[in-house]
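Build the 3D complex.
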Amino acid sequence: MSQTTSLEQDLYPSRIQDRPQWIPRHDPVVYGTVDDGPLDQGQLHFYEKNGYLLFESLFSAGEVERMREALRQAWNAYKTSDEDYVVREPNSDTIRSIFRVHKNNPVFREIAYDDRIVSRVRQILGSDVMIHQSRINYKSGFHGKEFYWHSDFETWHVEDGMPRMRALSVSIALEDNYPFNGPLMLIPGSHHVFISCVGKTPEAHYKTSLKKQMYGVPDEESLRRLVQEHGIDTALGNAGSVLFFDANIMHGSNGNITPFPRSNVFIVYNSVDNRLVQPFSGLERRPVYLAERDD
Amino acid sequence: MSQTTSLEQDLYPSRIQDRPQWIPRHDPVVYGTVDDGPLDQGQLHFYEKNGYLLFESLFSAGEVERMREALRQAWNAYKTSDEDYVVREPNSDTIRSIFRVHKNNPVFREIAYDDRIVSRVRQILGSDVMIHQSRINYKSGFHGKEFYWHSDFETWHVEDGMPRMRALSVSIALEDNYPFNGPLMLIPGSHHVFISCVGKTPEAHYKTSLKKQMYGVPDEESLRRLVQEHGIDTALGNAGSVLFFDANIMHGSNGNITPFPRSNVFIVYNSVDNRLVQPFSGLERRPVYLAERDD
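Done.
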């Protein structure tokens, strides 16, 4: 397959030029049809237009409690771990994320392959899918840090060699999201354009970027223009709600000084027809806990 | 008057003990009556109970534009100023606040003595009033930093020698507040209790505390309990809206990664029957741009 060669044409160049470029999306947003799964025409249309879909209660209260308990256990188990897939807060030992939970944790493995999620993902991506990355995140109360605006695809393309926009993320809320505890903000419609970032990626960028992003950061003028055009939507689902969002949608979240923590399960699905090639940065591949490869 | 001696009893000790104390408020919240000004019984009751009042459009669009223009001019005029009343962002030259604008700027002097504000303040405080502090604030888009939870009174009492809870703040929004651009959050009802803070105040604390507060910070357990009891209200007024809030209400704001800046005019009024004494910290007085004294 041409997509697995390293001679793939770079349709979405980024971190190369010294000025940001707006590149129209070359790929579809929705690959399947209403006959391919549980999403109806209205939902597919909403996803195509806005780049995300929020389901209020795809998981029951009991299932959410089971995931919360698994998250607490994982937090305790990895408290002093020096595994590289356990990522801590900047300047602190507090765990921020634990990666690869679809491989290492039976509860989250089950969730990652749950048909309520996978059937919808397959319908949107129009093919069989594979897991590109999974993690559990904990954004603490009082001191939760912001995540600046970014397109996941920009990173996955440049640093992981994901050739096309045929991937999406699923985020399962394990706590209620309020307007004031740093919920995910999305710029609806922003997934229709690829905004190239300025600056060259340094070696082993992921070691710091998971704590604080320095490269692959969109410029302020582009963000201002995107928000002027599209506004900002906020994902205010309760615990158990599930958000599906396109790999290229611009999103981020503010910090959180309230006592209400936010934790979630985060799984990225990629189409089997969109397998990773060599990173377009020309740098080494990132570790498998960030970008699974089956080759 | 006993209130101007330095032998004043310390009814609200803070930064002395090594565990936080909850001290019931010794002072009224509303000192005046419905006969003393424009606020009706419902508004006075709301303020007494919740500790704040929000007016959607006390100033016209034209007046707001005049203030915004004055703010822009002040920002330019003070760009390279080394006046101590011009406070910059941590690790940056960007101006965060300009103090004492009721003395140094004709537009904001007029606003500070505007009858729409002063009549309401006098009614709540039940006496003539004086200005304790004034400033204009600019919280930039994209990189606006959070303000952690605090009671203003705690600082004014410990560091400025404000003896009793008979003061309030007025904040005039010069931009629209959204849920996602770091609006002011208040814990309604929290003004009925004084939560003493832990840790001794260092000399000249104000030089760093205006950028990042390190002392006079309430403990997480108290904040958690306050929010459990009272919840969180968010001041989502449009440009031109005016918020009145009690000196002792617990408040703070999250950071802001959106392109929408937030700027406001902030004026603190104190009752003439509550004049400052020596700081209860035993340390030197702070400069007049932080705490006006007419003695």
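The radius of gyration of chain B is 18 Å.
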